[in-house]
Amino acid sequence: MRLWLKDPLAVLADEAARGVVVEGSRIVECVGAGREPMAPVDAVFDATRHVLIPGLVNTHHHVYQTLTRAHPGAINKELFPWLRALYPIWTKGLNPEAFRLAVRLAGTELLMSGCTTAADHHYIFPAGLEDAIDIEVDEARALGLRMTVSRGSMNLSEKDGGLPPDTAVQDEDTILADCERVIGAYHDPSPGAMIRIALAPCSPFSVTRSLMTQTAALAARHDCRLHTHLGETEDENAFCLAKFECRPVDYLEEVGWMSDRTWLAHGIHFDDAEVARLGRHGVGVCHCPTSNAVLASGLCRTRELEAAGVPVGLGVDGSASNDNSNLMEGVRHALMLGRLRYDATLSHLDVLRWATQGSARCLGRDDIGRIAPGLQADLALFTLDELRFSGAGDPLAALVLCGAHRADRVMVAGTWKVIDGLPVDVDVARLRREHGAAAKKFLAP
């Protein structure tokens, strides 16, 4: 079936003023001004009320954290004390039922915000939750959300000089064996893949040097990507200097991670030489503006990173340090914080590029992130009907400057997943009720 998304109010693509034609899972034509589709279409969607953009790509999340939003034990803290407050709560409370609801809720939120691809970084596997990656894949498939599921890990606990409690870590052999298992079960490197696996030791302060090295070798052997937190806080820099006698970027190189297979979360506290090194090796950086602001971590050097050749993407980060899973809101926050760091020439097109093309590059994908023939039909359509948009002259700029936060229509792989602002085949009221009940248990003393 050939579907023409006809005459959008505005479109974030070249030569597509009259919209796009979708056939199967792919975009097959961009229809320029004054033209008709080159071949007959089977159906037409009237997009005259809609601003059409590529589906947003979220390159860093911790979906389990939806269960501990605005947790009274962790609010108003910076990263290390925030983690120390929450690690015992997560380790004690996470179980398969609660985790499944967390994945479902976060994925639904992301879709409703216009996000069509997400990368989740799950690194905590308390007893009973050994199959967390399987649950994530199952829920992503049910929602129709394209996903890079990152098999995270922690094996450096407090007794060994790390940050997480002993109950929150696994041993290296267990971690590597499960990484092999989930790659074999789920990793699809082919174009248009709905599920891919990445390997993601959590951070320098929660994993050993050996695990970092072994994980890099495993990823190279199976052609999958590498992900970790790096350069998020000055505390992390101090930890690396004390524990490893080097800065985080030096450590990254020593353990074999300095390659275009790697993308990093946050990437705030890099000096000029480190920015240049990351760029030379093609290492990506996921900018997490909302989380960085909540935890007072600092301002990412997005312009310098991009200029050095670093792919820059966007992420919502964990829902306990962002407190929602809305990437469209994150786009606006990226603009506002970026202008505080730089100037008003940082534009809405810059931040939309990070959330689409840049994020796709971080995930190693050239089949999503843009509206062009041959690419996957992952699209987000926003209306400007709310009061917040009244008077807006530039529809694309209005999405960012006026604060769009909910898509009217979302398509993934050529199939509508959000219609009239609501997810297809998801009972939102029931999900809210069940997830809320599960989250209350994390407040118990």
Descriptive report:
It holds the Pfam family Amidohydro_1. Belongs to the metallo-dependent hydrolases superfamily. ATZ/TRZ family. Keywords: Hydrolase, Metal-binding, Zinc. With 445 residues, this protein is an alpha/beta fold. The chain is built from 14 helices and 18 strands. The chain has two domains: 2-54 and 369-423, Urease, subunit C, domain 1, CATH 2.30.40.10; 56-362, Metal-dependent hydrolases (TIM Barrel, Alpha-Beta Barrel). The chain is 37% helix and 19% strand. It has an eight-stranded parallel sheet with strand order 7-8-9-10-11-12-13-14. Strands 2-6-15-16-17-18 form a six-stranded mixed sheet, covered by helices on one side. Helix 2 packs parallel to helix 3 (132-143), helix 2 packs across helix 14 and helix 11 (327-341) crosses helix 12. The chain is globular. The model has no long low-confidence stretch (mean pLDDT 96).
Quick gist of this model?
This protein is an alpha/beta fold and 445 residues long. It has helices at residues 79-93, 96-112, 132-143, 172-186, 209-222, 234-244, 248-254, 272-281, 289-294, 302-307, 327-341, 348-362, 395-401, 428-440; strands spanning 2-6, 10-11, 19-23, 26-30, 43-46, 50-54, 56-58, 115-122, 146-153, 195-201, 225-230, 262-266, 284-287, 312-314, 379-383, 409-412, 415-419, 422-423. The model has no long low-confidence stretch (mean pLDDT 96).
